[in-house]
Amino acid sequence: xxxxxxxxxxxxxxxxxxxxxxxxxxxxxxxxxxxxxxxxxxxxxxxxxxxxxxxxxxxxxxxxxxxxxxxxxxxxxxxxxxxxxxxxxxxxxxxxxxxxxxxxxxxxxxxxxxxxxxxxxxxxxxxxxxxxxxxxxxxxxxxxxxxxxxxxxxxxxxxxxxxxxxxxxxxxxxxxxxxxxxxxxxxxxxxxxxxxxxxxxxxxxxxxxxxxxxxxxxxxxxxxxxxxxxxxxxxxxxxxxxxxxxxxxxxxxxxxxxxxxxxxxxxxxxxxxxxxxxxxxxxxxxxxxxxxxxxxxxxxxxxxxxxxxxxxxxxxxxxxxx
Length: 322
Fold this sequence. Notes:
Blueprint: E1 5-10, E2 14-20, E3 26-33, H1 40-57, E4 68-72, E5 76-77, E6 82-83, H2 97-105, E7 109-113, H3 114-125, E8 134-139, E9 143-149, E10 152-153, H4 184-188, H5 190-201, H6 219-225, H7 230-254, E11 258-262, H8 270-283, H9 286-289, E12 293-296, H10 303-316
Parallel strand pairs: 1-4, 4-7, 8-11, 11-12
Antiparallel strand pairs: 1-2, 2-3, 5-6, 8-9, 9-10
Helix pairs in contact: 3-10, 5-6, 5-7, 6-7, 7-8
């Protein structure tokens, strides 16, 4: 019987460990909030504890693992297996995470950034199944992109391809986590949506969002209110237009078959995607976008986790790698 893999996802807000079958079925998983103040060794210990917990919940016949895949919420040097940095967690510069996990478990380990992993996951299991040219955009605490070109992950010269979150779409706009102004992440990620709502509420009355304490207001509140609230709808439309600007530039450059939008914010669906599609139709070269699909990811909220599983499955059986 084909063996399952262990998938580990390190995100800015949550950690996840899961036992995944070769068909992409999650047999068992464990989810905890990320402790932003924890050091990399502490987070590693937590992840290994979570892995043991997930394995203990999985059926006994699925306990013999083939490999481990890691999805990391920041840039990764794929060849060396080291994290480059993380804009949302401290201390992750140059951590040899792949080798540390391999040493502790004795299993083959492969690691990539969360956007690359999720792009592969959507290609193997989700909305891009069967595609050979795919752009995946994750919109959550931050924004990143993964590229599947000619059937494989495109990582660039030093594993930094896909940093669409730091494409400047609003010159002179808000300061981004990278230190520049007007990056896509600074105007369209979850924290940016919440900030825009708080700023608007300071000058406008009548929104149902006013009932939410300012310190507790999140992008989810804004998205849920947008169906019936003018202020929230305006913010989501603006965010969708920013995303469309970034997507249009990428479409002109790489000519994908499908653009898959994932991450927590993507659950807003057409509130976000409809304005993005309009901007892409207006700004992308017609020959590049005529048959393009822009869709929500099918694997949420486990996109990065299943992407890590897809990485591990390819590691354990390279012949199956897209």
